[in-house]
Amino acid sequence: MKGTVLLFGLLSAVLLVVGRPSNGLKTLHLGSCVVTINLQEIQHGFSEIRDSVQAKDDNINIRILRSTESLQDTKASEKCCLLHHLLSFYLNRVFNNYKTTDHPTLRKLSGLANSFLIIKKDLQLCHAHMTCQCEEEAIPKYNRILSHFEELEPQAATVKALGELDILLRWMEESA
After folding, report:
1. What does the DSSP 8-state code read for residue 144?
2. Exposed, middle or buried by CB within 10 Å (0-12, 13-18, 19+), for 121?
3. Mean per-residue pLDDT, 12-30
């Protein structure tokens, strides 16, 4: 009897901890694709480097992620595809190319990149299940973002894109 009560108590405690939603976890609704991410952790990691990155941005009149034209007006069915492309962009063109000798910043970038890889892997599952398809809108929007990026010198573009990461994170939060 004591064993059963102890087992029941232990099982109840485990279910309480596991069943409780974790602080910071957000479920993104990207058309038919639904993924859960720890957005609070990503935002916190970026907030710790944002000021130093944005201080290096000399191109204050140029925006790569023009939120009204490229992100905000994206149809729900296109959000998954656009996010998939943007995560690849940040992983391949921004995080890999950002130059700094500051080791804490490099560690934060590594953490952000790892978080983006996890989200991208979840989005690839949506692609595999045909719930994340690229239709007529996402690719042209991504191409406009890419052309804004390529208007700048490579390091300046990398700094600008990293400094604008909060725009992407805000858009992701609005998709929750």
Report:
1. H
2. exposed
3. 63
The SS3 assignment for 146 reads helix
Q: Is the pLDDT of residue 4 over 60?
A: no
Q: Over 70: is that where the pLDDT of 42 sits?
A: yes
Phi, psi torsion values for 32, nearest 5 degrees: -85, -10
Whether 159 and 94 have beta carbons less than 8 Å apart is answered as no
Give the phi and the psi of residue 29 in degrees, each rounded to 5.
-105, 100
Quick one: three-class SS letters along 62-101? CCCCCHHHHHCCCCHHHHHHHHHHHHHHHHHHHHCCCCCC
Rounded to an integer, what distance in angstroms lies between the CA atom of residue 96 and that of residue 132?
Answer: 26
The pTM is what? 0.84
Closest by CA position to 89, among listed 162, 28, 16: 162
Burial of residue 96 (CB within 10 Å: 0-12, 13-18, 19+) is exposed
Specify the range with the lowest mean pLDDT, choosing from 36-40, 93-97, 117-121, 129-133.
Answer: 129-133
Please, which residues have CB within 8 angstroms of residue 168's CB and are 6 or more apart in sequence? 65, 71, 86, 90
Distance CA 160, CA 57 (A): 6
At residue 73, the pLDDT reads 86
Residue 9, pLDDT > 80, answer no
